[in-house]
Design goal:
Length: 260
């Protein structure tokens, strides 16, 4: 439901707020499940919260009921569902053996989620809506949730699981507050000729997810997580070549023509 339009209403609209609170319930249920060592249930609850988070904003726009109240409520609920819940899950599932370093990693994730939400709420409304600046916190939370299901599916236990998740938590914390750009998928315009191809692709994707959800969902969000730094690296490599080409063109324009 989050929006950066300064002209949105300050009224209270119950329907989208109820969807937002349903996401909060899912996040809280994830925390309770993690405390009870029901880690798979906790991971699934975070995924359910992600679904509600995607629905509340669309419902608000469809019913013309976006509001400042809804925006603030959405951010507070996101902090619980995508900050506290995945941090508690990560700590109790894999970071406890590291003692102080383990819970500090979990706290860092919550702190970076808070900063990520604050930056998003205060960023300029003219910022491109096709990209996110920094990894969205729902995607970071989903990455932790799918890691739990992925490790359970493959039977990954012991030190490998602990070290990999510790590294993942630190990496996600950095990516959320980084300046790497991520696709938002909010404004995807396609011509009629490609609509059928996209439909076929979506059907195939859902088929793959239905066949092996633990693996495919993990790989999809892993690719999305890495897309930000990879694209930044590609742009950095291309930029010197573009600058060299511009300098060459300027030098050719400034050089006098050869005398016959």
């Amino acid at each position: 439901m989050t929006t950066n339009n300064p002209e949105i209403s300050t009224k209270f609209y119950p329907i989208p707020c109820m969807v937002t609170l349903a996401g909060l319930f899912s996040g809280f249920y994830s925390i309770v499940s993690a405390i009870n060592a029901e880690f798979v249930t906790a991971a699934i609850a975070i995924m359910v919260a992600w679904v509600f988070d995607g629905l509340d904003g669309r419902i608000a726009r469809m019913t013309n009921s976006t509001s400042q109240f809804g925006k603030e409520l959405d951010s507070l609920c996101d902090l619980v569902s995508f900050g506290v819940a995945p941090a508690v899950l990560a700590y109790l599932w894999a970071l406890v053996p590291y003692g102080r370093y383990g819970w500090l990693a979990a706290f860092l994730f919550v702190a970076m989620t808070t900063l990520r939400l604050a930056r998003f709420n205060t960023q300029d409304s003219s910022t491109s809506s096709t990209d996110f600046i920094g990894l969205p916190c729902p995607a970071a939370a989903f990455m932790i949730a799918t890691s739990v299901l992925f490790c359970r599916f493959l039977g990954i236990t012991g030190e490998i699981r602990h070290i990999s998740l510790l590294f993942l938590v630190y990496l996600l914390s950095y990516l959320m507050v980084s300046t790497h750009r991520y696709l938002s998928f909010k404004q995807t315009r396609t011509d009629k000729g490609r609509s059928f191809q996209i439909l076929v692709g979506v059907i195939l994707l859902f088929t793959l997810i239905a066949a092996e959800p633990e693996v495919i969902l993990f790989l999809l969000f892993l690719i999305y997580m890495l897309s930000g730094p990879v694209m930044a690296l590609i742009q950095r490599v291309r930029r010197p070549s573009k600058d060299a080409l511009l300098k060459k063109k300027k030098s050719e324009q400034q050089d006098p023509p050869p005398i016959a």
